[in-house]
Structure formats: structure tokens, C-alpha cells
Amino acid sequence: MSAIDLPSPIERPRLSETIYDQLLQEIMDGRFSAGDRLPTEHQLAQRFSVSRPVVREALQRLQTDGVVIARQGSGTYVQRSPSRRVAELTSQHSLREVLQVIELRMALEELAAKLAARNRTDEHIQMIENARRALGEAFGQGVAAKEADYAFHHAIAVASGNGVLVETLDQLSGRVKGGMDVTLSLTREASEQRRDRVLDEHDRIVHAIRVGDGDSAAIAMRYHLDQARNRLLDRHLDR
Fold this sequence. Notes:
Layout: H1 15-28, H2 41-48, H3 52-64, E1 68-71, E2 75-78, H4 84-89, H5 95-119, H6 122-138, H7 143-159, H8 163-171, H9 173-188, H10 192-210, H11 214-233
Antiparallel strand pairs: 1-2
Helix pairs in contact: 1-3, 2-3, 5-7, 5-9, 5-10, 5-11, 6-7, 6-10, 7-9, 10-11
């Protein structure tokens, strides 16, 4: 077999990501609850047979995600714990991947909303409002709700007037819809108050774009995506 025919090497996950996934799973399973102190870096390094810097990187990621908090001289404590339902819903898309997609969406869609407020036409506004109305009608319908939510965010990207931004969102559509499926399922199973708040977040985005306030549109979009992230991570939030 020539060199050009050799199969590509299998990409292995980083050790810190494996430890991150394991600790997150244990938090979701209830082994560690909110307020509990995690084992020390040294103890975790011994348990997983890795170096302390590897453990430190995994803990830093958990802290960045808002799951744990480090207290100087005291240790690392669980700050929020996702529900076991999140673990079930992210069996095909790991929670880490869903959170990473939301982070990327924050950057892309905050810009999309700001540009949409600046560049939207009457036709764009109609398209966005129609998509919001369709989302409200399909909110409790599983696949239909996911498609309606994506159509809403896609309409805003189109209204931005930036074709590369639209193309990027299209390329990520599978992963974006996977994350939407998780967050919408959690909302569908939650309280009426939570469902109302999610729809209100969408309405705030629509209003800011309609009146041409780019800064407010960007803030409203970022708030919406940040809340989606928070609802994933905290089983007690907004039930």
C-alpha cells in the first residue's frame, strides 16, 4: 500500500476532555451535588492516572461552563448540576459538544442580530415574525419545534445581509438543531412559566431588530443563548 493510500489516523480525545466528561457525568448522576467539594487535583490525578495539569485543565473547563467554582485555599465545589434528563437527551450529542456549539452560536448570532437590525428590510421583518409565530405554534411538538426554532435564527442570519454568516450557520445546522432539540425538550417538559420566558426571549430579539436597535438586538440574542446554556446546566433553574 502506498503512503497516499494509508488510512487517516483515528483522532483521540484529549485526556482532559475525557476527565471533563467523566466528572460531568458523575455530577449529572448525583454522585456530587450542588455545594459538594470535589476531590483535590492530586486525588483526581491519582484516580485517573494522569498529571495534575491535565486534571486542572478539565476543572477549568467545568468552571468556564459554570458547573463548578474554585474557592481560593478551599477547593473546587459543584455550583450547578445538570439533570439526568440532560444526560439522556445528550446521549448522541455530548453535553460538552452542545455547550461548545452554543458558545460558537453566541459569537455568530450576536453579530447576526446586530447586523439584521441595521440591514433588515420589510420583507426580512415579515420573515422573522412569521418564523417566531410558527415557533409559538409548534413549541410543544418535538421535531416541528426544532425546525421552527432553526428557521427563526436562520431568518435573522439572512436579514443580516452577510452571506458568509448564513453559509456558516448552514454548515453547522446539524449540530445547531441537535442542541435545539435538547433545550426545547427540556423546556417542553418544564413549567408553563419557563416556556413563556423562552418565547419572550425570542420576542425581545424580534422587537430590537424591528426598531433597528443593533446593540439591543445583540444583547437580546446573547441573553437568549446564555439562558439556554444556563437551563442546560442547572436542573433547578426556571422549572
